[in-house]
Description:
Oligomer: heterodimer
Low-confidence stretches of chain B: 16-35
CATH class of the largest domain in chain B: Alpha Beta
Number of domains of chain A: 2
Number of strands of chain A: 0
CATH topology of the largest domain in chain A: MetI-like fold
Distance between the termini of chain A: 27 Å
CATH architecture of the largest domain in chain A: Orthogonal Bundle
Strand content of chain A: under 5%
Radius of gyration of chain A: 23 Å
Largest sheet of chain A: none
Strand content of chain B: 15-25%
Number of helices of chain B: 17
CATH topology of the largest domain in chain B: D-Maltodextrin-Binding Protein, domain 2
Mean pLDDT of chain B: 89
Number of helices of chain A: 16
Mean pLDDT of chain A: 86
CATH architecture of the largest domain in chain B: 3-Layer(aba) Sandwich
Shape of chain B: globular
Distance between the termini of chain B: 75 Å
Radius of gyration of chain B: 25 Å
CATH class of the largest domain in chain A: Mainly Alpha
Amino acid sequence: MSSRQSATDPHRSRPQRALRSGRRGSPAAQLSTMVLLLAVAGYFLLPVWWLVVSATKSSGDLFGTNGFWFGSNLHVADNVTKLFQHSDGAFSRWILNSVLYAGGGALAATLIATMAGYALAKYPFRGREGVFAVIIGAVLIPPPLLALPLYLLASAAGVVDTYWSVLIPSVVTPFGVYLARVYAAASVPDELIDAARVDGAGELRIFFTVALRLMTPALVTICLFQFVGIWNNFFLPLMMLADDKLWPLTLGLYFWNSQLRDQPWYDIVITGSLISVVPLVVAFLALQRYWRSGLSAGSIKA
Amino acid sequence: METTSRQWRAIGKAVAALLMLPLTMTACGGTDDGKSGGPAKLEFWGWAPGYDKSVELFNANHKDIQVTFNKLPSGGSGGYDKMFSAVKAGNAPCLAQVGFESVPTFLLEGALEDVTEEASGAKGQFVGWTWNQVSVAGRTYGIPVDTGPTAMYYRKDVFEKYGIAVPTTWEEYAKAAEKLHQADPKAYIVNLRATDFTGLAWQNGAKWFGTEGDAWKVTINGPQTKQVADYWQGLIDKKLVNTTDQGAAWWSSLQSGTVATAIGAVWLHPLIAENAPGAKGKFAVAPMPQWAAGDKKFGNEGGSSTAVLKGCKNKKAAVEFATWMSTNPDSLKNLIKVTGIYPAATAGLELPEVNTGVDYYGGQNIFTVFAEAAENTDTNWQWGPTHSQMGADMGEEFGNAYAGKNTLSGALDVTQDKTLAAMKSKGLKVNG
């Protein structure tokens, strides 16, 4: 199904399409590919299935019945009610916090990364490749490694335990800058920029009205990546935030799970986990058309 | 081109302003410990549910000290690391929930304040052995909160079905294991978890860590521990112990009765009730089997303190709060009910809340068993300063022993060596 869609995708280049239709010729190969893909898809979906099934169970059924099939009765409503009532409704607050961190952070990060990438692609200046090399290098550093230094920085600046301590580091995405540069170089023709300049448009206006529109698929990709990254980020908020009113979902669920020795809360942790992945699934389904083309353009030109 | 650079400069200014904004916003919001005038303000980090309520109770009754409670993930799940980072950055809270097993680790990290003088008056209010858990080499670093006296949870129905008497010694326990497994090849007497082993060794008077002058003494593979290890190895060799069902599988075998006992601490009782609801009324609690008939020796698993962290500017107020939380009847009632603690304060053991029948256990007053255990817990036990390393190595080596690649006794030898090496690499003076 996905191969047919991408074959008709206008963003695909010609040689690729030829390659695909060539492969489609052999039914045996097609069948084996299908079987392999189904197996892989099943493998990836199995934990999700477990999560869905487990969220419908009472804590007794959770350990007493088959993990991959439903228990004696559906407990979804009970679990959800319990989840939202637990700790004076802390869960709703954590959802809002996550939306704020991931939504606000992703939007700001996208704007900054796009501007930086566009500037690196379109303005020749001394040290440009050096700056770009540093940014590429930053892609290689796993974010948890930076959490402790960031924490020490933030505490020196006095922003520890505020929304800013998580938001400010979240607006930085070296991968986004890289992607934006590659995409801007490929999709924004220099002639178009020159034409706009001749027509008297300022650089900012060119960026916002011309370049940004041409770069939309890249924007969506960066935004989605960063949204998922911040949504799933755990170590940074763990370090930065002491007040549980500021926590995102990941930290809250992890906290509940870590309390297990004192009080058994498997049911709400599992239901909470299921609810916490829903926004990601929705974001991916809604934006997949854009982000696939954004990603593939980046990969070809790299 | 000129307009462009002016625009860029404007953007630069806007960005700089945005970055500075939070700095100016929080400049007036910082909390300070010993501020002159007004009440002393203390911050307290912990994860146990119900602590926040005790803090509220304290604040309502004290005008001169006000405590703010902040939650964080439990110690082993990153909470301790967060505390260490905060100490490093100089903004650690005054008070922190620290498990007994981690007090020496905190000391090694330089994360504790010596409160020997401030706390000396409180010592007499706690069960004797707990004071050793908040002290290292005669100096005190916090106040005990709760303990984890161990007992034997067992399936009455399974024992009755196969005519097995409740074992009172480990010898009888081994016989019961055999009888049960013969009657039902799918059933095992117990699932031995590596984390339970410390409580078993503790019961036998083992002392893994100690201090001699300015040096640590480590004897994880000492004779008392080896005796316990050899006993369990015998059961494992005869395939009378389940060593595979961990986590969720463990709950399910407790619920179905294919694992007939659990040697566990007092805090296990609500967990079994919640995670094995199908076995309601089928469980009972008996004292841990003894090594010699007629003995009254017990172990402990868990237990925690309220420790005073490095940099606390008002140690006196910190100790006052910590002592109040652990001894005040209203606070204890709340902690027993919500947190599920078993008090370290002697007066706490008398409270009606920990002297009552529990529905799930067929109405049995299980606490009499735990009270006896708490008061007869071996006082020798001390934890070491590299706890997470020791726990991880021991877990790994026990795993090897379960897989038949080593024996439990051999696992202890390896853990001993690895722990010695780890302590030496931290620059500690150690005598093997």
